[in-house]
Amino acid sequence: MPQPPCPEVLQFLATRRSASAQTLAAPGPTSDEVDVLTRLATRVPDHGKLTPWRLIVLETAPKAAFAAKLEALALERGDTKAVVKLGKLKAPPLGVAVIARPRQSDIPEWEQLLSAAAVCTNLLYGAIAMGYGANWITDWYAYDPDALAILGLEDGERVAGYIFMGTSATPPLERVRPDANSLVSRWEG
User: Distances from the Cα of 125 to the Cαs of 37, 143, 149, in angstroms?
Assistant: First the structure.
């Protein structure tokens, strides 16, 4: 299948910005749009065709229940900072947890984890391209073993990222970007 040049994609990449998760409100992507987004998100490089990732969709009510369980966990520990950090999870109407699940294979685990990160990137870019605000978040609940158990992760699985989506109440801010020229070199042998 030929792939013609697509300058619109280059323009999108040149202006793409993440919205603050705490500014994301309803409406978020519909069920049909989530189906499109997850299908597009999984069109990533996947050395060995291992599918070393899966996705957990957190729609509004189930996401609120998940946040309540995490809040109870944090309060049980007396961790008020962890409770505050849940604001990024609570505000958006939709979240998708991208779960890295490396497989036993001759394909290095590192490559499998990078493939899961590519799923996060495609999901983020897809939501933004649909006109939604989106943000890729990892916070304590992406690493804490008890939080991962609440989410239902299996042994060996990790959260590559939570992609939160909704309608941004304010336009995403531009931030200082690195000078690509200072980061690029050309190998000359």
Answer: 9, 24, 28
